[in-house]
UniProtKB/TrEMBL annotation:
The lineage of its organism: Bacteria, Pseudomonadati, Bacteroidota, Sphingobacteriia, Sphingobacteriales. This is Cellulase family glycosylhydrolase. Pfam families: Cellulase. PROSITE patterns: PROKAR_LIPOPROTEIN (PS51257). Residues 82-306 form the Glycoside hydrolase family domain.
Length: 358
């Protein structure tokens, strides 16, 4: 472990020098035009899928670290997604897994995409995230807390950036390394640079990193578009900046049809492709049956939260812990149990029907 860590530190130092040299004189590219973004979107058809985390991983670190990377489960669970007509997954990365083992991390990302390609599934990758636990550490991850939604999910970079501002240099190297490695990868739909900036009380404290990640990504200039999903209109500055900078429009909405349609109406004036990267919370009235037809009608990508019930415990609602229950009567998120049987056969039959021929 010490040799691997030392090697990673050396590689990180070399990569930092190389990236600083290669981008010092390079002007970040401009935001794509409306014409560019709409032309790009034509190749994809109707995107539909889920936020994917294998059932054996409690968080991004457990998914991507060498010791717990689980290609067999990934393969099996993606086959279930393909079997009901899904063709796109949104997948979170984490800088701490990359920092320990940079080349191994990228190899595992390639392995994931190879598995997904076998099932005709493309990928949206997410870099940073302000949701759930603000602290984390590499290595063995915590066990799930019974009945608690996302009890082990890790922010990235979380509180560590505020405790160690110099971490920004590592984050820059990380983002540029991943983007440079996969900048021409045709199996990647787009780069989701920052999930829900400002969540968990961060507010405008997240603005500097949001600005930086757009700057770093544009310096690399990947062939895929860049976006940050809007999710809370009360965060006025973060929302406005995300919309002004994103090549395509992405957003989250966990409400019922009326509210979701209002959100679509508020965003369609940007005249850019739209992808809903999070929806489907059954007890909120956001279901496959109520929302998918709306998204299909408007040619908006439909990426629900969760595929297989597992360590994340996202069958339980955000604010309704049920520590004494094995499962709630109505699942909040997720589609399948670990054995591949669905929470609702009627529901998966509906998904198969609406995705047929698309």
């Amino acid at each position: 472990m010490k040799k691997k860590l030392l090697k990673s530190v050396v590689l990180l130092g070399i990569a930092t020098i190389l990236f600083s040299c290669s981008t010092a004189e390079q002007k970040p590219r401009d935001r794509w035009t409306e014409e560019q973004s709409n032309e790009w979107y034509k190749q994809w058809g109707w995107l539909r899928g889920a936020n994917f985390q294998p059932s054996t991983a409690i968080n991004q670190l457990e998914m991507w670290q060498e010791e717990t990377f689980d290609p067999e489960t990934i393969d099996r669970e993606l086959s279930w997604a393909a079997g009901i007509g899904m063709n796109c997954m949104r997948v979170y990365l984490h800088h701490a897994a990359w920092e320990i083992d940079q080349e191994g991390f990228k190899d595992r990302v390639k392995q994931y995409m190879d598995i997904a390609e076998k099932h005709d599934i493309s990928t949206i990758f997410v870099f940073f995230d302000d949701c759930w636990n603000p602290t984390y550490s590499a290595g063995k991850q915590p066990e799930p807390k019974p009945g608690i939604h996302n009890s082990g999910w890790a922010q990235d970079p979380g509180d560590l950036l505020h405790e160690k501002p110099e971490l920004l240099n590592t984050l820059e190297t990380y983002v540029k390394d991943i983007l440079t490695t996969f900048k021409d990868e045709k199996r990647i739909v787009f780069w989701d640079l920052y999930n829900e900036p400002g969540n968990r009380g961060h507010g405008n404290q997240s603005m500097p990193l949001l600005e930086k990640v757009f700057e770093w990504a544009r310096a690399v200039n990947p062939t895929q578009p860049l976006s940050v999903g809007v999710w809370d209109k009360a965060l006025v500055e973060l929302t406005a900046y995300s919309l002004e900078q994103s090549d395509i429009i992405s957003y989250h909405n966990y409400s019922g049809p009326e509210d979701h349609l209002a959100a679509i109406d508020s965003l369609k004036g940007f005249n850019r492709p739209m992808i809903c990267t999070e929806y489907m919370a059954r007890t909120n009235g956001s279901t496959f049956e109520t929302i998918m037809p709306i998204l299909k009608e408007h040619n908006i990508g439909a990426i629900n939260w969760g595929l297989v019930s597992g360590k994340t415990n996202t069958i339980f609602a955000w604010d309704t812990p049920l520590p004494n229950e094995k499962e709630p009567p109505i699942w909040f998120h997720d589609v399948f149990r670990k054995d591949g049987t669905p929470f609702s056969q009627k529901e998966v039959d509906f998904i198969k029907e609406i995705t047929r021929g698309n």
